[in-house]
Protein backbone atom coordinates (compact mmCIF):
# COMPACT_ATOMS: atom_id res chain seq x y z
CA UNK A 1 0.00 0.00 0.00
CA UNK A 2 2.80 2.37 0.95
CA UNK A 3 4.62 1.40 -2.22
CA UNK A 4 1.59 2.42 -4.29
CA UNK A 5 1.36 5.76 -2.49
CA UNK A 6 5.07 6.31 -2.99
CA UNK A 7 4.76 5.46 -6.68
CA UNK A 8 1.86 7.88 -7.04
CA UNK A 9 3.82 10.61 -5.28
CA UNK A 10 6.83 10.03 -7.51
CA UNK A 11 4.64 10.04 -10.63
CA UNK A 12 2.91 13.26 -9.54
CA UNK A 13 6.29 14.83 -8.80
CA UNK A 14 7.58 13.87 -12.25
CA UNK A 15 4.44 15.22 -13.89
CA UNK A 16 4.74 18.39 -11.83
CA UNK A 17 8.32 18.91 -12.99
CA UNK A 18 7.35 18.20 -16.60
CA UNK A 19 4.49 20.70 -16.46
CA UNK A 20 6.81 23.27 -14.87
CA UNK A 21 9.39 22.76 -17.62
CA UNK A 22 6.71 23.19 -20.30
CA UNK A 23 5.42 26.31 -18.56
CA UNK A 24 8.92 27.81 -18.32
CA UNK A 25 9.64 27.01 -21.97
CA UNK A 26 6.30 28.55 -22.96
CA UNK A 27 7.00 31.74 -21.00
CA UNK A 28 10.53 32.00 -22.39
CA UNK A 29 9.25 31.58 -25.95
CA UNK A 30 6.57 34.23 -25.43
CA UNK A 31 9.11 36.67 -24.00
CA UNK A 32 11.52 36.01 -26.88
CA UNK A 33 8.78 36.47 -29.48
CA UNK A 34 7.69 39.73 -27.90
CA UNK A 35 11.20 41.14 -27.66
CA UNK A 36 11.85 40.34 -31.34
CA UNK A 37 8.61 41.92 -32.60
CA UNK A 38 9.36 44.78 -34.97
CA UNK A 39 13.11 44.10 -34.84
CA UNK A 40 14.83 46.28 -37.42
CA UNK A 41 17.85 44.14 -38.31
CA UNK A 42 17.74 41.11 -40.57
CA UNK A 43 21.04 39.24 -40.25
CA UNK A 44 22.14 37.14 -43.22
CA UNK A 45 25.09 34.77 -43.56
CA UNK A 46 26.75 37.01 -46.16
CA UNK A 47 25.95 40.36 -44.59
CA UNK A 48 22.98 42.25 -43.23
CA UNK A 49 20.07 44.50 -44.10
CA UNK A 50 19.23 47.07 -41.45
CA UNK A 51 16.11 49.19 -41.23
CA UNK A 52 16.06 52.33 -39.08
CA UNK A 53 13.17 54.66 -38.32
CA UNK A 54 13.02 58.36 -37.58
CA UNK A 55 9.77 57.71 -35.66
CA UNK A 56 9.42 55.72 -32.39
CA UNK A 57 7.48 52.99 -34.22
CA UNK A 58 7.90 51.43 -37.63
CA UNK A 59 4.51 52.43 -38.95
CA UNK A 60 2.13 55.08 -40.17
CA UNK A 61 -1.54 55.60 -39.38
CA UNK A 62 -4.60 57.51 -40.52
CA UNK A 63 -7.18 58.72 -38.03
CA UNK A 64 -10.37 60.48 -39.15
CA UNK A 65 -8.64 61.93 -42.23
CA UNK A 66 -10.67 63.36 -45.09
CA UNK A 67 -10.38 61.94 -48.63
CA UNK A 68 -7.92 63.70 -50.94
CA UNK A 69 -6.60 63.55 -54.48
CA UNK A 70 -3.34 61.87 -55.43
CA UNK A 71 -1.70 65.25 -55.99
CA UNK A 72 -2.66 66.37 -52.48
CA UNK A 73 -1.52 63.07 -50.98
CA UNK A 74 1.85 63.14 -52.74
CA UNK A 75 2.51 66.59 -51.28
CA UNK A 76 1.78 65.70 -47.62
CA UNK A 77 4.57 67.10 -45.46
CA UNK A 78 3.18 67.94 -42.03
CA UNK A 79 4.00 65.99 -38.87
CA UNK A 80 2.33 62.56 -38.75
CA UNK A 81 1.43 62.74 -42.46
CA UNK A 82 4.39 60.68 -43.60
CA UNK A 83 6.79 58.02 -42.33
CA UNK A 84 10.55 58.29 -42.88
CA UNK A 85 12.86 55.29 -42.68
CA UNK A 86 16.14 54.10 -44.16
CA UNK A 87 17.42 50.74 -45.34
CA UNK A 88 21.15 50.03 -45.06
CA UNK A 89 22.92 47.06 -46.60
CA UNK A 90 26.34 45.67 -45.77
CA UNK A 91 27.08 42.80 -48.14
CA UNK A 92 30.29 40.78 -47.83
CA UNK A 93 32.08 39.36 -50.87
CA UNK A 94 30.31 38.84 -54.19
CA UNK A 95 26.98 37.70 -52.76
CA UNK A 96 23.63 39.06 -53.90
CA UNK A 97 20.70 39.54 -51.55
CA UNK A 98 17.03 39.53 -52.50
CA UNK A 99 15.14 42.06 -50.39
CA UNK A 100 11.60 43.34 -49.92
CA UNK A 101 10.12 46.32 -48.12
CA UNK A 102 6.71 45.23 -46.94
CA UNK A 103 3.77 46.51 -44.91
CA UNK A 104 1.21 44.79 -42.75
CA UNK A 105 -2.18 46.13 -41.74
CA UNK A 106 -2.73 46.44 -37.99
CA UNK A 107 -5.80 44.69 -36.59
CA UNK A 108 -7.32 47.86 -35.13
CA UNK A 109 -7.69 49.37 -38.61
CA UNK A 110 -11.32 50.05 -39.52
CA UNK A 111 -10.91 51.46 -43.05
CA UNK A 112 -11.17 49.01 -45.95
CA UNK A 113 -8.08 48.25 -48.06
CA UNK A 114 -9.73 49.84 -51.09
CA UNK A 115 -10.19 53.14 -49.23
CA UNK A 116 -6.52 53.90 -48.57
CA UNK A 117 -3.61 54.77 -50.85
CA UNK A 118 0.13 54.62 -50.24
CA UNK A 119 2.97 56.44 -51.99
CA UNK A 120 6.65 55.53 -51.55
CA UNK A 121 9.60 57.70 -52.58
CA UNK A 122 13.34 57.50 -52.00
CA UNK A 123 16.24 59.89 -51.91
CA UNK A 124 15.37 63.56 -51.44
CA UNK A 125 12.61 64.56 -49.03
CA UNK A 126 10.76 66.91 -51.39
CA UNK A 127 8.41 65.32 -53.91
CA UNK A 128 9.96 67.22 -56.84
CA UNK A 129 13.43 65.78 -56.26
CA UNK A 130 12.54 62.35 -54.87
CA UNK A 131 12.54 59.11 -56.84
CA UNK A 132 9.11 57.50 -57.08
CA UNK A 133 9.35 53.89 -55.90
CA UNK A 134 5.62 53.14 -55.67
CA UNK A 135 3.10 55.38 -57.41
CA UNK A 136 -0.09 56.22 -55.51
CA UNK A 137 -1.68 52.79 -55.13
CA UNK A 138 -4.67 51.45 -53.25
CA UNK A 139 -3.75 49.00 -50.50
CA UNK A 140 -6.10 46.50 -52.12
CA UNK A 141 -4.12 46.73 -55.39
CA UNK A 142 -0.70 45.99 -53.85
CA UNK A 143 0.92 42.64 -54.53
CA UNK A 144 1.42 40.38 -51.52
CA UNK A 145 4.26 38.07 -50.56
CA UNK A 146 3.93 34.37 -51.29
CA UNK A 147 5.12 31.29 -49.44
CA UNK A 148 8.14 31.05 -51.76
CA UNK A 149 9.22 34.68 -51.40
CA UNK A 150 12.85 35.11 -52.50
CA UNK A 151 13.41 37.79 -49.84
CA UNK A 152 12.35 35.49 -47.04
CA UNK A 153 9.43 37.74 -46.11
CA UNK A 154 6.46 36.00 -44.45
CA UNK A 155 3.47 35.17 -46.61
CA UNK A 156 0.60 37.64 -47.03
CA UNK A 157 2.42 40.97 -46.54
CA UNK A 158 1.92 43.94 -48.87
CA UNK A 159 4.96 44.59 -51.09
CA UNK A 160 6.04 48.24 -51.28
CA UNK A 161 9.32 47.52 -53.06
CA UNK A 162 11.50 44.51 -53.86
CA UNK A 163 14.78 43.92 -55.63
CA UNK A 164 18.37 42.79 -55.21
CA UNK A 165 21.53 44.33 -53.76
CA UNK A 166 25.13 43.27 -54.30
CA UNK A 167 28.46 43.64 -52.50
CA UNK A 168 29.31 46.78 -50.57
CA UNK A 169 27.63 49.20 -48.18
CA UNK A 170 24.65 51.32 -49.15
CA UNK A 171 21.95 53.34 -47.37
CA UNK A 172 18.72 54.52 -48.99
CA UNK A 173 16.31 56.98 -47.40
CA UNK A 174 12.59 56.38 -47.92
CA UNK A 175 9.42 58.34 -47.24
CA UNK A 176 6.01 56.65 -47.12
CA UNK A 177 2.82 58.70 -47.39
CA UNK A 178 -0.67 57.35 -46.89
CA UNK A 179 -4.09 58.95 -47.35
CA UNK A 180 -7.79 58.26 -47.83
CA UNK A 181 -8.66 57.89 -51.52
CA UNK A 182 -10.72 60.71 -53.01
CA UNK A 183 -13.50 58.32 -54.12
CA UNK A 184 -14.10 57.04 -50.59
CA UNK A 185 -17.51 58.02 -49.18
CA UNK A 186 -17.10 59.46 -45.69
CA UNK A 187 -19.51 58.25 -43.00
CA UNK A 188 -20.14 59.52 -39.50
CA UNK A 189 -18.19 56.64 -37.97
CA UNK A 190 -14.59 57.27 -36.91
CA UNK A 191 -12.18 55.47 -39.25
CA UNK A 192 -8.56 54.48 -38.75
CA UNK A 193 -5.92 52.64 -40.75
CA UNK A 194 -2.43 51.67 -39.62
CA UNK A 195 0.43 50.02 -41.49
CA UNK A 196 3.56 48.51 -40.00
CA UNK A 197 6.61 48.60 -42.27
CA UNK A 198 9.37 45.97 -42.36
CA UNK A 199 12.33 44.98 -44.51
CA UNK A 200 13.47 41.43 -45.25
CA UNK A 201 16.51 40.03 -47.02
CA UNK A 202 17.83 36.64 -48.04
CA UNK A 203 20.98 35.56 -49.85
CA UNK A 204 20.27 34.60 -53.46
Write the layout of secondary structure elements.
Layout: H1 2-36, E1 41-44, E2 47-53, E3 59-63, H2 70-74, E4 82-91, E5 97-105, E6 116-122, E7 131-138, E8 158-165, E9 168-180, E10 192-203
Antiparallel strand pairs: 1-2, 2-4, 3-10, 4-9, 5-8, 5-10, 6-7, 6-9
Low-confidence segments, given as residue ranges, are 10-39
Please tell me the total number of domains.
2
- Cα(first) to Cα(last) distance is 67 Å
Quaternary structure state of the chains depicted: single chain
Care to describe what's here?
The chain is of the alpha+beta class and about 200 residues long. It has 2 helices and 10 strands. It has helices at about 1-35, 70-75, and strands at about 40-45, 45-55, 60-65, 80-90, 95-105, 115-120, 130-140, 160-165, 170-180, 190-204. The longest helix has about 35 residues, at about 1-35. The N and C termini lie far apart (about 65 Å).
What is the gist of this entry?
The protein has helices at residues 2-36, 70-74, and strands at residues 41-44, 47-53, 59-63, 82-91, 97-105, 116-122, 131-138, 158-165, 168-180, 192-203. It has 204 residues and is α+β, with helices and mostly antiparallel strands.
Name some characteristics of this structure.
four-stranded antiparallel sheet, 20% helix, 2 domains, six-stranded antiparallel sheet, alpha+beta, 204 residues, Jelly Rolls, single chain, 2 helices, 10 strands
Amino acid sequence: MNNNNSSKQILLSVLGVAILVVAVVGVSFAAFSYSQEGKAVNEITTGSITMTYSNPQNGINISNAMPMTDEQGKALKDTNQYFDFSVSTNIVGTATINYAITATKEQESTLADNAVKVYLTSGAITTEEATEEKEPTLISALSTTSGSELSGAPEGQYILKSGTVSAGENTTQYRLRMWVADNYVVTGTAKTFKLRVNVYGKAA
